[in-house]
Design goal:
Layout lengths: L2 H14 L14 E5 L4 E4 L15 H15 L7 E5 L5 H15 L4 E5 L8 H8 L5 E6 L11 H10 L8 E7 L7 H10 L3 H9 L7 E5 L4 H14 L6 H15 L4 H15 L5
Parallel strand pairs: 1-4, 3-6, 3-7, 4-5, 5-6
Antiparallel strand pairs: 1-2
Helix pairs in contact: 2-3, 6-7, 8-9, 8-10
Length: about 280
């Protein structure tokens, strides 16, 4: 085979090969999304978030997570955190708000890196990209949970504590979940009932949540807190409506949805602002 033919084959193979992922430049932004397929971090110029002062009814959780994150930003020891509880109660909003608040205290102190639930098996690759970077990274996974046959939790378990390399010194991991033990109760009970050794059958999966040194529980709020959240949003965005009318409409809105939460309050405010012809921005 002549040299020209070999050159054409080599060029064809290069075209078929996937492109090398772009170099990781954490100075490009304060937030990134991890794309496991291409192995690269996409900068996020503007994060969709709520101001921390508008997150009412979760003051204890807010203060605890702020203190943990503030220590981490200063280079001090800090725990991985699991924020668990009912949907719409402010778990992911709090993580993003804390990130913004810490960076407001110390500009550029933290990078927020989001990894999607389905990309958890690529977590070791992501950490290899973050390890040794000059910036400290808050790694965030929203709505984390595992099904009975899902083995990807092993990647997370090893990284959080048990692996040879473990979690990089410049990374802390925060996750939100509707489940305290990251797997459905019926799955736990099913594995216990069918296992030769019921205790050991689920120990490995249940113990995953123990790898999070900080557990923060979130629950639906009472009516007074729900209305306080609505009123706080209304003041923030200058929505002109009588207090009595707003409270009555907000209560009706929550009743039609069967829950009172920060998400329900925000959805009501979006509806109210639309009816009033007032943009939220």
């Amino acid at each position: 085979m002549d040299e020209k033919t070999l050159t054409r084959i080599a060029q064809a193979l290069e075209r078929l090969a996937p492109p090398a992922p772009p170099a990781t430049d954490l100075a490009a932004a304060d937030a990134f999304v991890w794309h496991a397929e291409g192995g690269w971090l996409e900068p996020v110029p503007s994060v969709n978030r709520v101001e921390i002062d508008l997150l009412l009814g979760i003051e204890n959780q807010r203060d605890t997570l702020m203190e943990n994150t503030r220590r981490f930003a200063k280079g001090l020891p800090a725990n991985n955190a699991l924020l668990w509880g009912a949907r719409g109660t402010g778990k992911s909003s709090l993580v993003k708000a804390v990130h913004a608040a810490i960076n407001a205290e110390r500009a550029g102190a933290l990078v927020l890196v989001e990894i999607h639930r389905d990309d958890i098996p690529s977590l070791p690759r992501l950490l290899s990209r973050l390890r040794g970077q000059p910036r400290r990274c808050l790694l965030f996974c929203d709505d984390l949970s595992f099904d009975a046959q899902d083995t990807s939790y092993k990647s997370l378990k090893a990284v959080l504590e048990g692996g040879i390399e473990g979690r990089p010194e410049n990374v802390v991991f925060y996750a939100t979940s509707n489940r305290r033990h990251l797997m459905a109760r019926e799955m736990i009970e099913n594995e216990r009932s069918t296992a030769i050794n019921p205790g050991e059958a689920v120990e490995e999966k249940v113990s995953l949540s123990d790898r999070f040194g900080l557990w923060l529980g979130f629950h639906n709020v009472d009516q007074a807190t729900y209305l306080a959240i609505v009123e706080g949003y209304a003041r923030r965005f200058g929505l002109t409506i009588s207090a009595e009318a707003m409270r009555a409409q907000a209560i009706e809105w929550a009743m039609t949805r069967g829950s009172r939460s920060g998400r329900t309050a925000w959805q009501f405010i979006q509806d109210l602002a639309g009816r009033l012809g007032k943009p939220l921005g």
